[in-house]
Design a protein that fits this description.
Pfam families: DUF1175 (PF06672). It comes from Melittangium boletus DSM 14713. The chain is of the alpha+beta class. It has a single domain, classed as endopeptidase fold (from Nostoc punctiforme). Helix content is about 35%, strand content about 20%. It has helices at about 1-10, 20-35, 50-65, 85-95, 100-105, 160-165, and strands at about 75, 80, 95-100, 115-120, 125-130, 145, 155-160, 180-185. The strands form 2 sheets. Strands 3-8-4-5-6-7 form a 6-stranded antiparallel sheet. A two-stranded antiparallel sheet has the order 1-2. It is globular, with a radius of gyration of 18 Å. The model is unreliable at about 1-15 (pLDDT under 50).
């Protein structure tokens, strides 16, 4: 009887949070802090959408798992450890696709990415938006935080659900948008 009760209690107990939870909270804190005022430690020449991702992830690891920074967080174009990776390289080697549909959007957690690829005369332009979502989804909708890429531009934020209907068509994260690559998660957080 006691063992059955113990099994039932363990099944009813909330699952322990994933080990990356403190990292995700720190990613959210750092990303939203850049909206208010960009950190002077974030090098101006690296201020673009991928630079924001690199900056807040490194900052989160510096606080919660500094030993992980003994090797670079990112993978380069050949899959080698690298301190730098542009948006295309981050998506190809350091982040895993989650999908492009509503189910993937509903599964998003802080630190996940919304990714786009626009075709331009000068070649493809990749753009990343960092997801910030409360751990309890009932408290607030997911946000995106991003740097628009222009030199001197401020970091911006908005509600993820608003992108679905209010953003210009080429920036809507919906399956019908061919420029929308999908949602992505840091590979180390998928294990």
């Amino acid at each position: 009887m006691h063992s059955l009760l113990l099994v039932l209690l363990l099944q009813a107990a909330p699952a322990s949070p994933p080990p990356e939870s403190p990292l995700r909270r720190e990613v959210a804190r750092l990303a939203l802090a850049q909206v208010r005022q960009m950190d002077p430690d974030w090098q101006p020449e690296q201020r673009d959408c991928a630079g924001l991702v690199r900056f807040v992830f490194r900052g989160a690891y510096r606080v919660w798992r500094p030993e992980r920074l003994a090797t670079p967080l990112w993978r380069g174009t050949r899959g080698e450890p690298s301190h730098f990776a542009d948006a295309e390289t981050l998506l190809a080697h350091s982040f895993a696709p989650l999908g492009r549909d509503e189910a993937a959007r509903e599964s998003l957690r802080t630190g996940d990415l919304v990714a786009f690829r626009q075709e331009r005369d000068a070649g493809p332009l990749f753009h990343l938006m960092l997801v910030v979502r409360p751990e309890d989804k009932a408290h607030a909708p997911a946000r995106v935080v991003y740097h628009p890429g222009e030199k001197g531009a401020a970091v911006r934020t908005g509600l993820l659900p608003s992108l679905l209907t209010e953003a210009p068509l080429e920036w809507r994260p919906v399956p019908q948008n061919t420029a929308f690559l999908g949602f992505f998660r840091f590979k180390e957080w998928t294990r």
